[in-house]
Amino acid sequence: SGGDQGILGRKVPGQTGLMVLGASVPESFTVPLAIPPVLRPVQTVGRTDHYELTVRAALQEIVPGLETPIWGYNGEFPGPLIESQRGRRVVIHTRNELPAPVSTHLHGGRTPAADDGYPTDLLLPAQGWEHGHEHSGAISHGERDYTYPLDQRAALLWYHDHRMDFTGPQVWRGLAAMHIHRDDEEAALGLPTGEYELPLMVTDRSFGRDGRFLYPSRDPELVSPPGVLPDFANGVLGDVLLVNGVPAPFHPVSRGVYRLRIVNASNARHYRFELVPAPPGREPFLLIGSDGGLLAAPVELRSFALAPSERADVLVDFSSFSAGENVVLRNRYGDEHCSDVLQFRVGSELGPSYSTPPVLSHLERLDESQAVRTRTFHFARRNQHDGALWPIGGHLFDPDHIAAAPALGDTEIWQLSSDLRHPFHIHHVPFQVLDIPGVDTYGWKDTLALGLRGSARVIIRFDGYRGKYTFHCHTYEHEDMGMMANYAIT
Ligand code: C2O
Ligand code: CU
């Protein structure tokens, strides 16, 4: 059926996913950008900051004039921004007032396994949930603490739902937010800050006539056990791009240097960002950081790509534009609906300038000779009579199966291959990419888009905490349909 009822997806040529076409597509650049509110600690004890977060349903005006029912951290999409400092522990007391279980994962966090948001470690609803058919994880009833040591480099992290089999629909409803982690090394660079540092969460969604989020499911309550969903091909795409939950917004800037901290929080959509018009006589972007924080040295770029869950930290100098000019951050991978991301309206005031040092960070480079073994994993579709399943190395996700068990401190090479584009993501331990020319400039990563370049080798040091963690495809509809596995640090 068409319109905004029933199963909504249809394939659009040139796209790699299932495109959900909605009825409400607002005009680009008519709504101002919003910056998520910064969450304040409720209490600070020694070196620990305590926060409170309630996961709940709310109504939010996203498309002008319509109210969208969302699920959000503190009832907001995106949820509140958390800012942390290396050396200070963060404890988030979380209460679940949704009608469904959740599991919150701090993406990019180096977190002990019990607080990592394992897919079956469910936080059940505070009220009205019949316990019984959950998988055998650590179950909490109504509320729990998530404790994050955050003894790690400064980086843009983000947090999102990770409930087994339901991550795609639950994040689509709004369970995603940013977390900026800082440290002294980064502070010493004196990078643009305050209104000159913009956290930008990019997602795509589709909206029905009444403002509802549309997600292709046969069940309005989003019950999606493996096997009953329509064939998601390569994930679910929306036809409206949102930045911080605002459809293709505009933002006034002064003629100075801005630091854009971008996370691709989309379920399945890949982006390639460019600036139109480009500034005269130079590349528009200076890439200074990626998933795992600062690069060793800045890289000038005409454009950059982000797979789902990847982050970019870029400087843009608006002083090379004239007052009154409109400069658009565009997505070059999109179809015609999905190229407008964000419009900067350049004002006449001068903003701060910034001269980037040639060395940003003293990055340790992992060396192949340190690796004690090589493992191979193949990410590829398996066809079924009623759709596709997405195994890794032939195995669908099983919470009890351990695919790799490195000893604490081991360095390994993982050889990764895929049939299509799959953003490989591993929890807890960042990696570096081997073999891809030039990519040593891209620093510490936690996600890598497979399938664009054939196979890839990454080098991983399994330090941190012992325990069971996941790695998976970060296309949520693949993850929900099996493309996830466990490793355990022993
Ligand atoms: Cu953002 Cu397990 O993922
Ligand atoms: Cu995938």
TrEMBL record:
Instruction: Note the Gene3D superfamilies from the entry.
Output: Cupredoxins - blue copper proteins
Keywords of the record, alphabetical order, are: Capsid protein, Metal-binding, Oxidoreductase, Virion
Transmembrane stretches in the record are: none
Q: Which residues form the Plastocyanin-like domain?
A: 65-182, 387-488
The record's section on Pfam families has: Cu-oxidase_2, Cu-oxidase_3
For this protein, what is any one GO molecular function term?
oxidoreductase activity
Is the keyword Transmembrane in the record? Answer: no
- Note the PANTHER family from the entry: BILIRUBIN OXIDASE, CUPREDOXIN SUPERFAMILY PROTEIN
UniProt similarity note: Belongs to the multicopper oxidase family.
Question: What name does the UniProt record give this protein?
Answer: Spore coat protein A
Q: What is the lineage of its organism?
A: Bacteria, Bacillati, Actinomycetota, Actinomycetes, Mycobacteriales
